[in-house]
What does this fold into?
Amino acid sequence: MKYTVITGASSGIGYEATHAFAGRGKNLIIVARREEKLEELKKEIQQKHPELEVVIKTSDLSISENVHDFYNSLKDYDIETWINNAGFGNFDPVGEQKLPKIETMLHLNIEALTILSSLYVRDYSSIEGTQLINVSSAGGYTIVGGAVTYCATKFYVSAFTEGLAQELKAMGAKMQAKVLAPAATETEFAQRSMDMDEFQYEGTIPQFHTAKEMADFMLELYDGEKVVGIVNGETYEFSLRDPLYPYVERTR
It folds into this structure.
């Protein structure tokens, strides 16, 4: 049996991606901090797709030691696709941002994603049909005022994943690495970014996608051969692209 791993699966894009990949007949390993949300999601999936296995892993991946423990707990599973979706944002001027929150964001958005990507590539890059999808942001290609540090984390995700895709191709590896870059999406993102209890996208944000729409875009990226799936921050059109960052082969 092969499995698709989705981090940050308890809500938003991760939640809808879980439904989307279940719709493709994929067995799932879902991870997030909130066990009750994962249990609810598992029940929903198994009601629709009783033939699928859904494995729950509860972990806070912003804690460094949890990242290796989580990956090591999956040694008995054959992982076909790995989706690093877990992450959060922050809206504050750099001089006013809360550093404990920023440290947690750096651990989750950058450190956990890098370690999990590296371990997955190490174990599966030679296996036909494997994919790594890292969720970045349109803010991983355009710096947004008031969200400079968040955007910088997503610039890292975009550059890292694009570079990895190029590296895997140059090595003749069978794995594909891809990056999904959403723009404003109706999730819990804004609430956590601004430390609010509630946030209404309708009537506040001029344009946005639903999490289900983004999960559908993720499937387009998954099905295609392009490395980047990106939402245009002005038109909100989604397109599949070749890598956007310059890449130079190292000379020996």
About this structure: The mean pLDDT is 94. The chain is about 40% helix and 20% strand.
